[in-house]
Amino acid sequence: MRPVLGMLLLLSGAGLAWSLWRRPPSYMLLTFGFGYWVFVSGMLGFTSYLASWVWWMPITRVFAFPYVFVGVLIAALLLWWAPRRFGSSVVPWAWGLVGVALISCQLAWVPISEVFGPSELDWRQVKAESIQLGAWYNAQQGHAIAVPNDRPDITYALARFGGVEGKHLVSEMYDPFAYLPSGYRYEDHQSTVSTLVQCWLSERDVALIAVPDTDVNLRRVVELNPTWFTHAGFMAEAKWDVESVSIPRPTSSECEAARSASR
After folding, report:
1. How far is the first Cα of the chain from the last one, in angstroms, to the nearest whole number?
2. What single-letter DSSP state applies at residue 249?
3. Range of the domain at 128
4. Cβ proximity of 219 and 164 under 8 Å
5. Total structural domains in the chain?
């Protein structure tokens, strides 16, 4: 348990209870705000998030509204409650504190920059390679492109900057090798597995496939069936070989026979 988060949970729980009990004119805002803090402090302070706690979690893992709600409370306290309690003479001080708070909040950008600033160069390379991958795909637009599932940054950049619509993206997470029985090796059943891959590519209309250097199975498919693929290029940062796909379409009976043989 994080003591600070435990204290926040108690305070937000008390604020939520008071809002529901007293029902002031702003109780809907107060209920939502205090309730949100109950959720956030309870989730981060008393769940498995504790196992992976790092200092920047309050910056990146807390939703925006809880901080907006705190800002509203501080502004109401300084600009509404304080003048009513201590008189109009405190208004300049109240506005001064609001200004100091706003400026102090900008200091949060310092640790954010320290953590994420060094990744800017990597991101630029990912973006450039994603644009190039999109260019290779757009040369044969209208079909599908198969990409590895473990690089969401490239998938995002491919759609955002590469001009590839999401409906044309096929994940390699569930390629035919994902469904093979344990111990069923490509080397021992080359014809059957090659047919399964052929059916998978044809049924999804894959015209371009990215093959990572860590995927032994797909690399072997390319090596054993050279007439199916034409090398389009290499993505150095991702370590992906990109291949254009041109395969004879198998019949449905051939696909079903291969699936039956691999069970």
Report:
1. 48
2. P
3. 121-261
4. no
5. 2
